[in-house]
Amino acid sequence: MNCKRNLLLISIIGFLGSHVFAQNVMVGDDHEPNEPSIMMDPNNPNILVAATNLNLYYYSSDMGHTWTSNKLSSPYGVWGDPVIDVDEEGNFYFFHLSNPPDGEGNFIDRIVCQKSNDAGKSWSAGTFTGLNGTKVQDKQWSVIDRNNNNIYLTWTQFDKYMSTDPGCQSVILFSKSTDGGDTWSEPNKVSVIAGDCRDDDNTVEGAVPAVGPSGEIYVTWAGPNGLVFNRSLDQGETWLSQEILIDKMPGGWNYKIPGIYRANGMPITKCDLSGGANHGTIYVNWSDQRNGWSDTDIWLTKSTDGGITWTDAVRVNNDDTKRHQFFTWMDIDQTNGNLAFVFYDRRNYEGNYTDVYFAYSDDGGATFLNKKISDSPFLPVKSIFFGDYTNIVAHNNIIRPIWTRLHEGQLSIWTELTPLETNLVVGNDALTSTQTNQIKQYPNPAAQMSYVSFKLHTTSNVSLSLFDQEGRMISAIMNNEKMEYGKYIIPINVSELKLTDGIYFAKLLINDTPKTIKIVVLK
Fold first, then answer.
1. Does some domain include residue 458?
2. Is 90 exceeded by the pLDDT of residue 298?
3. What is the rounded CA–CA span in Å between residue 70 and residue 28?
4. How many domains does the chain have?
């Protein structure tokens, strides 16, 4: 081995031993962006669309490696709370609050829907729902039923925003479109118990809808009774006459995080439609301060009976530092049922320095892997509005979290290209494939051939695929092959695949349980 190659090998080994394997990409930093939303076209995962406050949108055609940004306009005005969704035909939707120009309406008096049929490059003028005199329409979220392309929206209506009048109420409303966002149904009230209008713990907010396997509509929100749930079995026409309590949410949904303008723990509702072991399970993810005002945590509960009963809350963040984790978001990879989370995390610091963490569960929320995905921490300041949300999208093992970074007074939006790869943390220990299921890969580094070996203790279905650092599949080496008890050695022909020097990942699926093996190619 010559000196140059030896030096390169030492460099790569050092990188593998010390780096968190994050590959951060800045989505944008113009016009003080915050509160991001992101969505991937499941029919073409190269296509991603994102949006931020107040009126910015971004699109990528290379799986998030590069982004183009622009400003959204509408005759109804654009005033933040951006939500991006996509239908079965690849049409994207941008939902947002209104700010009608020239006094043509009241401030945030409706929910606006604008549509793109060219992968987020241009948008229609838009349609709207929720217009109701002087009442305020706020914090909308959407879901699209993949069986019929129906679009469902839920949000909060305030009689008068920030009013202390005990006669003013906040309620959760629902509206749907069955024609691709061209028209919307008259809003239907979902909440049974109303909240106040103070934009605080006793206000009903955070209604994120989800669709069940047979078209059920599920929605959870936070309010005076904690986290409550309702559902519709007839596409939103009728709802349960009594809300179901999920969790009392000790401390409420509105809390303080040092250095953050304002913070909340509002819930995210998702349903597993993967056809796997947890098909039909409803998950709700949120954060609260039940363990103390200086120890915010991320929580998950689930229901396997359509929302009638719920498990006790389990903690997603696996640190033991009693520090802050906040602004969580989750998604379900509907190709396998795995859960993906993103949140801010201060486990590594005494003060307000903040990292971004990714969490992952491939067993229905029984266990969680945690990984720091931000390249460096940031130090936010309370005087600059930071936004109220993060976001994440997952499909076919391609995961793109999105978050706001506020450092030295500068706001910017970031994503991460390799959240699944290596250095996932269980408690305080790193999990590697060679520590579980006797899975091994050799030689490492590899020049011509690489081999993955594993043992099966029972007849199993096995798949093996090779990915690059960006999560793009290079080769499906085995596809759901039935294999008997025994030890197996599977070759990967590095030369035949024309792999260049670098880091690759082999994903081994044994009966739908994934393990990722890191492979270094050095010719």
1. yes
2. yes
3. 10
4. 1
In terms of Cα–Cα distance, which of 74, 270, 256, 258 is closest to 181? 74
CA distance linking residue 289 with residue 325, whole number of Å = 10
CA 32 to chain centroid: 22
Give the CATH number, domain containing residue 510: 2.60.40.2550
Q: Is there a contact between 358 and 341 (Cβ–Cβ < 8 Å)? A: yes
For 379, list phi and psi in degrees, rounded to 5: -120, 95
Residue-wise burial string across 503-523, b where 16 or more C-beta atoms lie within 10 A, e elsewhere? bbbbbbbbebebbbbbbbbbe
Domain that holds residue 517: 433-521
Q: Is residue 138 part of a domain?
A: no
Q: Any idea what the Cα angle at residue 81 is, between residues 76 and 87, rounded to 5°?
A: 85
Q: How many Å is the maximal CA-CA distance in the chain?
A: 81
As to burial, measured by CB atoms within 10 angstroms (0-12 exposed, 13-18 middle, 19+ buried), residue 207 is buried
Q: Taking the CA of residue 127 as centre, how many other CA atoms within 13 Å lie in the half-sphere pointing to its CB?
A: 14
Tell me: the pLDDT tens digits for 374-404? 999 999 999 999 999 999 999 999 999 999 9
Residue type, position 173, single letter: L
Contact 153, 140 (CB under 8 A): yes
pTM of structure = 0.81
Structural domain includes residue 178:
no
Q: What pLDDT score does 454 carry?
A: 83
Residue 248 phi, psi dihedral angles, 5° rounding: -70, -15
Tokens, residue 437: 């299921």
pLDDT at 479: 87
Per-residue pLDDT tens over the stretch 317-371:
999 999 999 999 999 999 999 999 999 999 999 999 999 999 999 999 999 999 9
In a domain, 502, yes or no: yes
Sign of CA dihedral 178, 181, 182, 185: positive
Q: Could you give the CA distance from residue 332 to residue 341 in angstroms, rounded to a whole number?
A: 9
